TrEMBL record:
One term under GO cellular component: synaptic vesicle
PANTHER family found in the cross-reference section: LEUCINE ZIPPER CONTAINING TRANSCRIPTION FACTOR LZF1, PROTEIN ROGDI HOMOLOG
Main location group: cytoplasm
Pfam families: Rogdi_lz
Protein name: Protein rogdi homolog
InterPro entries (UniProt xref): RAVE2/Rogdi
Source taxon at top rank: Eukaryota
Family the entry assigns: Belongs to the rogdi family.
Subcellular location: Cytoplasmic vesicle, Secretory vesicle, Synaptic vesicle
Amino acid sequence: MSDWEGATYTEREVFYEEEFRWLLHDEVHAVLRQLQDILKEASLRFTLPGSGTEAQAEPEQEASLCLAYPALLRQDVNLKMPRNNQLLHFAFRDDKQWKLQQIQDARNHVRQATYLLTNRDDNYQFKTGAEVLKLMDAVMLQLTRARNRLTTPATLTLPEIAASGLTRMFAPALPSDLLVNVYINLNKLCLTVYQLHALQPNSTKNFRPAGGAVLHSPGAMFEWGSQRLEVSHVHKVECVIPWLNDALVYFTVSLQLCQQLKDKISVFSSYWSYRPF
């Protein structure tokens, strides 16, 4: 029989007490410091100057984009129109920047998570497991929201895209039959150009306005002003942004650390079911 098997209930109780005290006084703070270091690196990814990124959709349709937190600084697009083979070129006006709310929101959530981790005296000691669990839940909520802002682009209706103002950011001005949308999806900056055509008043098509979507398909209809319009072609370009990929990795690692600490606390909670751990 091992010493542990022969230990009395009181001896085991003392052992778990000491282990749990060590967890609260030492390991919790070690994990918090590790989380702070990781989130510091994540924050740096949102503040470092971005570099130009190029991507091609098809030989006759290409785009060059420059993203620097939190704004899209430069965008050059060459687009060959399928209907008449006309080659269009349009670019961001020199005096314009387009702020990407997804990036701004993600960074704000990282800041809030960092604040939660550092908002206490250096000598502060956690007294209960419940206190640690509450902190981890709050930090994980902010990190999950930060990750979701990058992985879950907003769904927009076509009128919302038309009203966003992005279409007016280009020189020369875009033709009236084009709509443009830009968004983040995971580690990619996505540019979508919608080519439109007007539905005639005597059209036999059953007009059904499209709802919200991240990417609308040809055939989607909407009403803008006094016109009824339909999407005839969709052109999409995706540019990989390496620092966004880094940020997503940091979010995942941080969430795993939080969950591991919660799991350790839960082990003691199950042993002392009558205590507020």
